[in-house]
Amino acid sequence: MTLSSQRLTNGPGSNERPSFSPDGKRIVFCSTREGKSQIYVMRVDGSEVEPLTSQGNNYGPAWSGYSP
After folding, report:
1. How far is CA 60 from the centre of its chain?
2. Per-residue pLDDT of the chain in tens (68 residues, 90 and over written 9)
3. 30 has which bridge partners?
């Protein structure tokens, strides 16, 4: 079996601590793309990136009761 990788994020800042949703359809992660560390969610193909937080510094995203 051959494994491959694909870049899902780009632009300024760092994107860290990815975690797959229980159903495997989304990824939650921390990003400093807007300055302070915020939490974002996106589809596993890298589309539909949405911020979940916008104030303070937020780290360590985890799945709990998320319902798209």
Report:
1. 11
2. 788 888 888 888 999 999 999 999 999 999 999 999 999 999 999 999 999 999 999 998 888 765 55
3. 16, 39
Q: Global pTM?
A: 0.84
What does the alpha-carbon distance between residue 39 and residue 65 come to, in Å, rounded to a whole number? 16
Residue 65 CB contacts under 8 Å (≥ 6 apart), including other chains? none
CA distance 2 to 15: 25
pLDDT of residue 68: 56
**The residue type at 21:** S
Distance CA 29, CA 42 (A): 9
